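Re: the request from the purification team.
They wanted to know what the chain is likely to look like in 3D before they choose a buffer screen. I agreed to run a prediction and write the result into the notebook, where they can find it.
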Amino acid sequence: MTKTKHNGTIRVYLDSADAPIIEKPIDEVISGTALAGSPLSAMKASGRNLYLPIPYAKRCKITYENFQEERNWNNDALFWQINYRTYPESTSVRTFAMSDLTIAKAKLEHVQKSLLDPAGVQPANVVFHNAINKTLDPKQTLSKTFQGPGAICKLSVKLEADNLSQALRSTILKISFDGEQTVSCPVSDFFGSGVGVNPFKGWYRQVQKDGTMTCRWVMPYRESCVVELENTGNQQVQATLGSVETCPWQWDDRSMHFYTYWRQENDIPTRPHCDWNYITIEGKGVYVGDTLALYNPAGKWWGEGDEKIYVDEDIFPSHFGTGTEDYYGYAWCCPEVFEAPFHAQPRAEGPGNQGHVTNTRSRSLDAIPFSSTFRFDMEIWHWASTKVNYAATTYWYGFPGLKATVTAPPIAGPAPADKLFDGVFLDQTSLAFMPVAKGMNIHYTLNGTIPTRKSPIYSKAINIKKTTTIKAMIFRKDGGKSIPARKPVVIKRRKTPYRTAVEVKNCVNGLRYNYYEGNWAVLPDFSKLKPVRSGKCDNFVMQEHRQDDFAFKFTGYFKAPKDGIYSFYTTSDDGSQLYIGDTLVVNNDGIHKPEEQAGQIALKAGLHPITVTMFEGRWGETLDVKFTAPGLSQKQISKELLFTERK
């Protein structure tokens, strides 16, 4: 959780209780000592985190109340992430009570101390294996085999080379369990360091100043385990496979292998904003963490993008965050190196967030189980138009045979070729779809039902003579299921008459505008507001305004050059709407990044009342209004087509 001003009260209601079980100032609950002290409750790089589990049997409701009389961004901005797990109905859960903290005081203190000293916690009957080392020439490998059943419970690696940062990236750690290679990752990324030696200590991983890197994830195997270090670079590397510890393991039908996947991509454009896939997994397992190592060439903030995690049959992500830094437990673009048991930023260069950055997160009670599919996308949302380098390392447990890949962004569904999801026509029209990926088919319906594999397959433009709702979905030709499953795309084509032009006397080129100030999440009812300022302008350009929390309303007349179907477009940050007369043509409302929406209307040649409204919440404002007309490509609405009555 993070907030511009950490005041106000957080209340937690459990089960059917009318009174909150927790009711305290928010900064005492999250990062304070009201429930637990550090490290379970701590602030790191301006981000406040609480890792104390709060069990409930039936229901949990969390509310926040602010004390500020004036509601605005500086007082009210609150970002939060709440991770919770739902158990089968038959699971017995005892609901949390504040008295539990007193009863479990000694145990809680022991846990807090142990989290800060992971080396002091060991499984029973540990077997210590001697370190081995070898000078690796290019393409040479150092390996060690362990017989099962058993589990690795500690693994240490240390490399030495003339160019150590390069050696840590070009020396690959490979681990095979029971004949299946499930780990293949550059050494420094596997241990959460990113590029170079970046010291930090967490519960599962640690990087020391001398370059020793340690992992404490438990990695079980039934018959055997092979650990390898392969030098894929062009320099000699002195490799040490340090003190490996194994412990007994009783392999059963619940046992899983440990997996790691590494992906790197350089020169990723930050415009347009996109979702970048960390990992896509097919099979059954439990996701336990990730590391993001990136290079930012621009001196502006890179981490506004949200994580989007799809589990099994998710149509909408189960996890949809508020920013990359929030996902990794810090806030406000803070370039501060920090460590904690379950999250860390061991590298953060500058100035202005420029340079190499490493963020890492491991999961304990917030691990994510999945039964059939798992997909993790991170949105790339940078304040600057530039190119960035991303490298993601993902960690999970899975049953043998699990498949992992990186894929393109999720299929949002078939897109109409004209990019209009709500269009109009006069007599008849046709609908064509954009091409889809090889191996895919578009199935559609015209009667409002959800498409299935038995629905018609799109092969050519669909002729439409009456108002119709088209629903379409993409399916694999081979019968496989898309990952993740998606809702059908809904496209409307409405038969409509022309809108008659109006006669306006004594008019001049331009528009009238009203300027407002306030804090909104959607466009307000302007009829109930008093403008701060009014005036005349040439077109839909924001006039003088404060930095955030403002709105504009533009009114006038649009001159349609000739009869026809007109398409209007608004690109805005945040919300906007466009009306012709009292007809809403474009609805682009809500809090969002710069986003384009479109709509259509049939106009007779002449003047038509036009209204465009927009509001800005925080972090950058945009308004761009365009149109297309019969025989014209998309263009901005020029001053010559806009009129207002002379006053």
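For the purification team: Helices lie at 26-29, 73-76, 99-103, 105-115, 164-170, 187-190, 324-327.
Please add any questions underneath this entry.
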